[in-house]
């Protein structure tokens, strides 16, 4: 890790984002369960019920947000691992330092801006 980045401040920022993300996951899980339970109480035929398609859309939307939040949590966990290993702030593609400004905005960033724009996006659990 580069000397001008405080390990403790990075750890605190990652931990705070992790806590926020865990809270968002828990809220989304409750929302998803509520949608499923509400739908189970009513015999809904999505094809013929005018509200069926909006219920299906809402369920799919919450499921998508939940997946995104879980991916963000994984990315934060991986960033904490990189911090512990001393690789935090180093681009996984070119090996150059990731600008501090990028890490402030995206503390789980794995690549520098140049490499991020040159490659298609990948999910946090996948290696480039």
Q: Span between N and C termini?
A: 20 Å
Task: Provide mean pLDDT, rounded.
Answer: 85
What's the Cα radius of gyration? 19 Å
Q: Classify the secondary structure makeup into a structural class.
A: mainly alpha
Uncertain stretches of 5 or more adjacent residues: none
Give the proportion of residues in helices.
Answer: 55-70%
Order of helices and strands: HHHH
Beta-strand content estimate = under 5%
Q: How many distinct helices?
A: 4
Gross morphology is elongated
Biggest sheet architecture:
none
Oligomer: single chain
Number of strands: 0
What structural keywords apply?
128 residues; mainly alpha; 63% helix; 0% strand
How would you portray this structure in words?
- This protein has 128 residues and is an all-alpha fold.
- Helices cover 63% and strands 0% of the residues.
- Helix 1 (7-41) runs antiparallel to helix 2.
- The longest helix is centred in the first third of the chain and has 35 residues, at 7-41.
Architecture blueprint of SSEs:
Elements: H1 7-41, H2 52-85, H3 100-105, H4 113-118
Helix pairs in contact: 1-2
Kindly summarize this structure in a few lines.
The protein has helices at residues 7-41, 52-85, 100-105, 113-118. It is an all-alpha fold. The protein starts with 6 loop residues before the first helix and ends in a 10-residue tail after the last helix.
């Amino acid at each position: 890790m580069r000397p001008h980045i405080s390990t403790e401040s990075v750890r605190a920022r990652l931990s705070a984002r992790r806590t926020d993300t865990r809270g968002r996951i828990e809220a989304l899980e409750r929302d998803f369960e509520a949608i499923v339970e509400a739908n189970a109480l009513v015999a809904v035929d999505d094809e013929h019920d005018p509200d069926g398609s909006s219920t299906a859309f809402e369920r799919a939307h919450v499921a998508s947000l939940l997946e995104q939040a879980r991916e963000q949590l994984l990315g934060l966990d991986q960033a904490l691992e990189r911090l512990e290993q001393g690789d935090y702030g180093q681009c996984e593609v070119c090996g150059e330092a990731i600008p501090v400004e990028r890490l402030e905005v995206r503390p789980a960033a794995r690549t520098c801006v140049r490499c991020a724009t040159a490659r298609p996006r990948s999910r946090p659990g996948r290696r480039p």
